[in-house]
Prior knowledge:
Structural class: mainly alpha
CATH architecture of the largest domain: Alpha Horseshoe
Number of helices: 20
Shape: elongated
Distance between the termini: 116 Å
Strand order of the largest sheet: 1-2
CATH topology of the largest domain: Serine Threonine Protein Phosphatase 5, Tetratricopeptide repeat
Number of domains: 4
Strand content: under 5%
Number of strands: 2
Amino acid sequence: MKTGWxxxxxxxxxxxxxxLLLADPGYVAIRFAGRLIExxxxxxxxxxxxxxxxxxxxxxxxxxxxxxREAQIMRRQDRARRSLARGLLEMSEGEWLASEQTLTNxxxxxxxxxxxxxxxxxxxxxxxxxxxxxxxxxxxxxxSSDRRAxxxxxxxEMHLKHGQFQAALxxxxxxxxxxxSNSRAVMLTARALRQTGDxxxxxxxxxxxxTTRGVTQAFADETVAQIYLDRLQAAxxxxxxxxxxxxxxxxxxxxxxxxxxVVAYARAAMACDQEDVAEAELRKFLSKQWDESAVLVYGExxxxxxxxxxxxxxxxxxxxxxxxxxxxxxxxxxxxAELYGKARSYLETSIAIRPRFEAWQLLANLFxxxxxxxxxxxxxxxxxxxxxxxxxxxxxxxxxxxxxRRQSDRRRN
Length: 413
């Protein structure tokens, strides 16, 4: 419709112009190089139009080769884009080898070859072809020398996936040296350092975790918590009570309220023969918030006054009467205080509420030390029945027939 209106307007304009020119075609005179060139305005206009189209044709002729090359490049890039889409679909379908070949073959023609090589590297990794994977990542690095972050981050992720933590750190250090580090790289560095147990470098990384955009507060808090967990555990293993006290002093108040931190500190203090210190911290923590793991560790304490420790544990019973972990803890301290009847009652109640293998084992050991071997065997059988899920079906053995058979076997021998 618009084209029709344009043609109609052009015809009307041309008719009006022709009418004016017929009445007075105009006159143009040009003096050039001592010569006078005369023509009508219509002829001059036609010459100008012809010169314009001639110049455009000459320009196109000059640029024809370049335009042809550009068209070829565009076609190749379009093929590469289609190959990238096909390779992604093949990898999603589980055709990893086909995906790798499709992406590798089209990488050279792609606008961004690194993208093809990186996806092909992931396909190779899914096949377990680590050598081909590393070669493809190296090609991606060569193809994008100005932007190395994608390839190095993928390389670090794959090393972490296969437990190659030092190799992952090397890739991340290369990335940090280029100045292209981002939130993903910082988070991967934290993960690798956590796996290697290098809490000193992890602690040095904390400011970057706090300031890097894209790193969540929860991740930073969890990483910092892991730093102190590692430090507490290291102090416990080395039985270094001075280091343990220093770490606990430096611990942020927010972390001191976390159950796993308190439990780690208590275990480290117990390893350093500071049972009373561990007991005080556990009791202080449990008075504010209830945590099953802390309750169970409280039962592992071997204090000089087990009766006092038992009385302190029993003070929590009115509020936690149905807590099997607390009952097990009370039973442990009752045994240390030589209150075996109370310990048995606590253990049987704990098992009735929530069966635990350690409670059955403790009950069986208690019966055995008290000389009640049949009860000890029954406790162990109950534990096995609970583990299997049912009691083993065994035909009843007739005692007399069994004895006669054994005697007959002996005579033959």
